[in-house]
Amino acid sequence: MKALVITKPGGPEVLEMQDRPVPQPGPGEIRVKVHASALNRADLLQRRGAYPAPPGAPADIPGLEYAGEVDAVGEGAGLWAVGNRVMGIVGGGGHAEYVVVHEREGIRIPQNLEWEDAAAIPEAFLTAYDSLFRQLDLTVGERVLILAVGSGVGTAAVQLASAAGATVIGTSRTAAKLKRAAELGLETGVDTSREDLAEAVNQATYGSGVHAVLDLVGGKLLEASLRVVALRGRVVVVGTTGGSKVEVDLGLLLRRRIHLFGTVLRSRPLEEKIALAREFSNAVIPLISAGRIKPVVDSVFRFDQVAKAQARMEANESFGKIVLTW
User: Tell me: the pLDDT tens digits for 68-93?
Assistant: First the structure.
């Protein structure tokens, strides 16, 4: 099979298309012929040597998600049949023509989606769903602040939160992205390139603040967002593109009894990923099938154009997901 391989740490020039053996499914596993995958910040970090794959995942083949059809089933696997359309997340190896996963990690692709649309779902929507509802416990009527609302996870989160009856405030450094996010359910947009985050949120909430924060940025935006968290509010940090070090006013955390915690999906054990996939299948797939929630595809590139795709992501030009197809 063809696979996109990181030959050594470095820039896009270190990526090379190579032939690798086709993986074989073991007991309880399925092999998926990948039609499309998507690009994530983790792929860029792994290429630079800054984010190694977890144990059990290919060390030199990036790719955290896939969309394709079942090609073979292992012994004892009975959830899927050959030809079924499935999507899901992997610890690595998604940028190859075939992947092998546990059958219960697979998620049914709704019939109304093309391969490119399906590939834009797993990492973004599973991360957003887990962060909003399993970590932050977001409920109807609450206000949630999403940092980097134009990112892949951001565009998924704004739709999920809005569908759940929450009021969504989001940030971006680009006014055009905020305008597009408004079409997805964003009620208040904050352009952090020219607005003070805390001041804008306080104005939008009449000083009441937000009940929850989904931080996909880190750095100084985390510090600013803490100043607008209401009493007993919750903050989850998922990304650190804005920096991994920040000063935190512990007195503020104590006075407002703020819950501040971090989460990561990639390195979780198989049992947790299976539980998330099954819960997501029941809770969100029906909404996607009905067209109430839609994946946001920024652009589509062939796998042999991966350097252009990564350059677009590194330039922060994308809104939603950048998809790669064979």
Answer: 999 999 999 999 999 999 999 999 99
Residue (of 97, 52, 45) closest to 71 by Cα position: 97
pLDDT at 44 over 90: yes
Residues 6+ apart with CB under 8 A from 207: none
Distance CA 209, CA 202 (A): 6
What tokens does 192 get? 């952090």
Length of the chain: 326
Report the candidate in 289, 310, 223, 274 with the shortest Cα–Cα distance to residue 103: 274
> Which two three-digit tokens encode residue 112?
């109304």
Per residue in 221-263, pLDDT tens?
999 999 999 999 999 999 988 888 888 899 999 999 999 999 9
Helix, strand, or coil (residue 200): helix
Mean pLDDT value across the chain: 96
The terminus-to-terminus CA distance of the chain in angstroms comes to: 11
Q: Three-state SS string across 96-163, please?
A: ECEEEEEHHHCEECCCCCCHHHHHCCHHHHHHHHHHHHHHCCCCCCCEEEEECCCCHHHHHHHHHHHH
Q: Six-digit token pair at 297? A: 């595809």
pLDDT tens sequence across 153-172: 999 999 999 999 999 999 99
Q: Which residues, in sequence order, are CB contacts of 305 under 8 Å at separation 6+? A: none
The tokens 């499309």 sit on which residue? 36
Q: How large a percentage of the chain has pLDDT more than 70?
A: 100
CA-nearest of 185, 135, 139 to 164 is: 139
User: Structural domains in the chain?
Assistant: 2-121+266-325 (3.90.180.10), 124-262 (3.40.50.720)
pLDDT at residue number 246: 87
Task: List the one residue out of 133, 131, 207 whose CA is nearest residue 165.
Answer: 133
Q: Kindly provide the b/e burial profile for residues 117-156, where b requires at least 16 CB atoms within 10 angstroms of the residue's own CB.
A: bbbbbbbbbbbbbbbbbbbbebeeebbbbbbbbbbbbbbb
Mean pLDDT of 189-214: 96
